Amino acid sequence: MTAIHVLGLTKRYDELTAVDDVTLDVGVGEFVGVLGPNGAGKTTLLEMIEGLRRPDAGTVEVLGEAVWPRNPRLQPRIGVQLQASSFFERLTAREQIRTFASLYGVGAATADGWLERVGLGDKADTRVEALSGGQAQRLSIACALVHDPELVFLDEPTAALDPQARRNLWDLLSSINDSGRTVVLTTHYMDEAEILCDRVAVMDHGRILQFDTPAALVRGLDAPTRITVAPGALTAAQAGAIAGVGEVGEGPDGVVLVTREPAAVLGALAAGQHLDGVTVQTGTLEDVFLALTGREYRA
């Protein structure tokens, strides 16, 4: 089954085409990430799929329903965490999430439980304007999930979170997905996408450049393997003499062997008893991202 069906979606602002003829499908129960540099069109794409922004061309169906004009039948079935959070002023965290919950007919006990799940139980009586950026982000996510939606949209959900909070949120999102919910998120964290997502769409200049599993994207890059041998274990000359080594470098962590035949090179290192302290680095999703979108600075 398809949770999201997007066909030829386009959005323009004067001379700028923010989203350019995007077509994609997301299956029910999938966890999909959308990656891209600043200004790639990620947020605009999500807002059109969510029914928050009218497309100039193309169609969107979510859970079998058209999203535009605004479809009130979809609102109880989806959860949305926006990039910029807006809360009712002068309410505490508890009052805030209970208010959101009441809009969906969800009881206070369930709302309070979500505060605990995102680690804000001790901040329940704190006014939202007194929360830190990371705490406000977690409250925003809890508000998006409080009514147990079938489909969840999260726009950079772990921005402003410390490493511990990020990891805890990963566990929460994984558990939600494991229960059969569909999750779509945008993120700038490659490790986050690689760990959480079933498939990843890399977007730039309003277009989807690649859409596949993280592993398939990395395989398609055909990046060389870098094998680092501990300092003193091997000289650069000895490393260069190993069959299959294409390039040798030296760094603070030891001698670096660049190869496209890692099995043969590791076998040679094992035969020479040079495996102690060896590290192996293959291509990563970040390598894919940079290969597709370039390295220039984006404001």
How does this model look, in words?
This protein folds into two domains: 2-213, P-loop containing nucleotide triphosphate hydrolases (Rossmann fold); 224-282, 2-Layer Sandwich (Alpha-Beta Plaits). Helices cover 32% and strands 28% of the residues. It has helices at 42-49, 93-103, 108-117, 133-145, 163-178, 190-196, 214-221, 236-240, 262-271, 285-293, and strands spanning 2-13, 16-27, 31-35, 57-62, 65-66, 78-81, 151-155, 182-186, 199-204, 207-212, 225-229, 245-251, 254-259, 279-281. It has a six-stranded mixed sheet, with helices on both faces. It has a four-stranded antiparallel sheet with strand order 2-1-4-5, covered by helices on one side. The protein has a four-stranded antiparallel sheet with strand order 12-13-11-14. The mean pLDDT is 93. Belongs to the ABC transporter superfamily.
Write the layout of secondary structure elements.
Layout: E1 2-13, E2 16-27, E3 31-35, H1 42-49, E4 57-62, E5 65-66, E6 78-81, H2 93-103, H3 108-117, H4 133-145, E7 151-155, H5 163-178, E8 182-186, H6 190-196, E9 199-204, E10 207-212, H7 214-221, E11 225-229, H8 236-240, E12 245-251, E13 254-259, H9 262-271, E14 279-281, H10 285-293
Parallel strand pairs: 3-8, 3-9, 6-7, 7-8
Antiparallel strand pairs: 1-2, 1-4, 4-5, 9-10, 11-13, 11-14, 12-13
Portion in beta strands: 25-35%
Spatial sequence of strands, sheet with the most strands: 6-7-8-3-9-10
**What low-confidence regions span 5 or more consecutive residues with pLDDT below 50?**
none
The tally of strands reads 14
Q: Supply the number of structural domains.
A: 2
CATH architecture of the largest domain: 3-Layer(aba) Sandwich
Q: CATH topology of the largest domain, anyone?
A: Rossmann fold
Write down the secondary-structure element order.
Answer: EEEHEEEHHHEHEHEEHEHEEHEH
What helical percentage do the residues reach?
A: 25-40%
